[in-house]
Amino acid sequence: MAYSLDFRRKVLSVRKKEGLTIAEVAARFDIGVASVTRWVKNIHRKPQGFRQRKIDLEVLR
User: Fold this and answer.
1) Closest by CA position to 20, among listed 6, 36, 35, 5
2) For residue range 5-46, what is the model confidence (pLDDT) as tens digits?
């Protein structure tokens, strides 16, 4: 599940303001520790999309 940018900012703000550990803030907001760890490293999620195919489908046809 993808969390909104506002929610991620709120979680990290509470963590910083109250001096909580990653595990503590994850438990408070009932989210995964891995999610909070990723947000600490980079709050902006990576664009989701399809991978490029090695072979162009039109050429293949």
Assistant:
1) 36
2) 999 999 999 999 999 999 999 999 999 999 999 999 988 776
| Best CA proximity match to 36, nearest among 4, 11, 18, 2 | 11
Residue with tokens 């909580």: 20
Q: What per-residue string of b and e applies to 22-58 under the rule 16 or more CB within 10 Å gives b?
A: beebbeebebeeebbeebeeeeeeeeeeeeeeeeeee
Cβ contact 15:7 at 8 Å = no
pTM exceeds cut of 0.85: no
Q: How far apart are CA 14 and CA 58, in angstroms?
A: 51
